[in-house]
Amino acid sequence: MSLRLRLTLWYSGILALTMLLFGIVLYFLLNYFLYDQVRQELQRNAEDTYSRVQKSIALSQKGLVIDLELVSRDIYSTNTFLQLYNVQLKSYNRSANLQNYDVTLPITKATLDKLQQTDGFFDKTKVVGQDILIYNQGIYDTSSAPKLIGILQAAVPIGSYERTSDMLGYTLIVWAILTIFVAASLGWFLARKALKPIDQVIEAASQIESGDDLEKRILYEGPQDEIGRLTDTINSMLSRIQVTYTELDDAYRAQRRFVSDASHELRTPLTTIRGNVDLLEKMWKMTSGNAQLATSDQIQMSLEAMHDIAGEAQRMSRLVNDLLALARADAGVVMEKTPVDMLPVVEEVVRRAQFLAHTAEWHVGSLDALENAVVTGNRDYLQQLLFIFIENAFKYTKEGTVSIEAERQEGLIGIRIADTGIGMDKEDVPHIFDRFYRADLSRGQTSGTGLGLSIAKWIIDEHGGAVEVKTRKDEGSTFVIWLPANFPLQV
Q: Which residues form the Histidine kinase domain (predicted)?
């Protein structure tokens, strides 16, 4: 059963119960007030007639008894049927309207018994097929012990009142049915309109499930009620899902590119190593393993082949180490950190950097800003971070200078590494920390794996730092590494 149908049934059921209670109360209240006026008028007429009943002493077979008679004005009453019954003589004295119909109002043993206990009561009965209301009032002989000697009955037809009551009951029933039907129809319409956003939620979810449209959103222009808040929440969730899906898709494409580039980078040294191994094997067969039979050219070729093998093996080792570092970063490996005094670390890197292969001039600026600066981090990774930027600067600066200097801001130290090399286009800057990304100008001109800056960015992030990049094509690049630091010895 759908939620819309359940809401409609609940609403209709509550309305039906309300209408039933309202109808019952209204019916009985109207009946009460309708008959109450008739009862009061009938009782008043009976009491007036009772006050005019003539009593006389008569002789009968039972001896002296009290005879009862209606006066002339009561006999010819036209508004009310009157009947006077003498209990002792068992005789009737009726008004003219009753005589014309030749009708006697019923008096039963139950009537006599009840009048023994009360002075008067109402009774509803049918006479000649008509509904009439009778007020029975007892007439008592109070000369000794109270004794019922007569019954005065005043009656009026109530057929019109009964028809009105029946019509009222039917009208209330029909009105209740129509009201419930209209209310149920309106409730079904309102429930459908109110729950329409839920259908849109289902439709949007179905489209997302099938992968057709991740940009689908639920359109809702109603008030910010429960449905409105639910719609906003689901729209926010859909936006988050879209962003997450896009990130996963980008990550998947990056992973495929990563595997492709890694395979390409590994294939090149492997090809070189295999070719040189084949060359050495041929030369070994030609000399039959006797080095004295080898010519100077063959010896030179062997030396070059072994040099190539060693170089490519080192290149593969660096590539594998870089891949291992990035794999650890992806796996969420927590870097072990301790307080590190930055000045000795940078001085050690500066000393060792002069021994790196380079053609540009190496210039060391002021490092005074690192005095007493302590960074909570990993000493080895911090050294690796600086070497990555320095090696890149040497690699892309064939002529000119590469410099390093330090600066300080509040709670931060900055290590500036600048070069006058080939620089980069501004379009390349957002991608330089992507894995295997290398600017088009340098691709094929310089060796490298394209993983260094990715590792550097991971080390910076692990230390809670940031990197600032300034570059211009053919003019050089400047990288400023900012790291949070403490200065415990500073006065």
A: 261-487
Hey, what are 141's tokens? 């002989």
Q: What is d(CA 104, CA 123) in angstroms, rounded to the nearest whole number? A: 15
Domain definitions of the chain by residue range: 3-166, 197-333, 338-484
Q: Tally DSSP H helices, then E strands, for the chain.
A: 11, 14
**Residue type present at position 161:** Y
Locate 488 and state its tokens.
Answer: 């415990």
At 52 the pLDDT is 85
Strands (DSSP E) contained in 227-275 are none
Question: How far is the CA of 262 from the CAs of 35, 254, 295, 437, 438, in angstroms?
Answer: 102, 12, 39, 12, 13
Structural element, H or E, at residue 239? helix 226-287
| Best CA proximity match to 122, nearest among 37, 29, 42 | 42
Judge whether residue 461 has pLDDT over 80: yes
Which residue type is seen at 349? Answer: V
Q: What is the pTM of this model?
A: 0.44
Domain 338-484, what architecture?
2-Layer Sandwich (3.30)
d(CA 333, CA 323): 14
Q: Residue 197: which of 4, 427, 429 has the closest Cα?
A: 4
Helix (H, G, I), strand (E, B) or coil at 275: helix
Instruction: Give the full edge-to-edge strand order of the sheet including 120-127.
Output: 91-94, 81-86, 147-157, 130-141, 120-127
Burial tier of 426 (Cβ tally within 10 Å: 0-12, 13-18, 19+)? exposed
Cα 8 versus chain centre, distance: 23
Distance of CA 386 to the CA centre of its chain: 49
Angle separating helix axes 452-462 and 379-395, nearest 10 degrees = 140
User: What digits encode the pLDDT tens for the residues 252-261?
Assistant: 776 666 665 6
Q: Residue 143 has what DSSP assignment?
A: S
Select the CATH number that applies to the domain covering 197-333 from these four: 1.10.287.130, 3.40.367.20, 3.40.50.720, 1.20.58.100. 1.10.287.130
Strand partners, 122: 135
Distances (CA, A) of 437 to 249, 261, 262, 328: 18, 9, 12, 20
Is the CB of residue 139 less than 8 Å from the CB of residue 149? yes
Q: What is the dihedral of CA 352, 357, 361, 366, to 10 degrees?
A: -20
- Give tens-digit pLDDT for 287-329: 655 555 556 776 677 667 677 676 667 667 666 666 666 666 6
What radius of gyration do the chain's Cα atoms show?
57
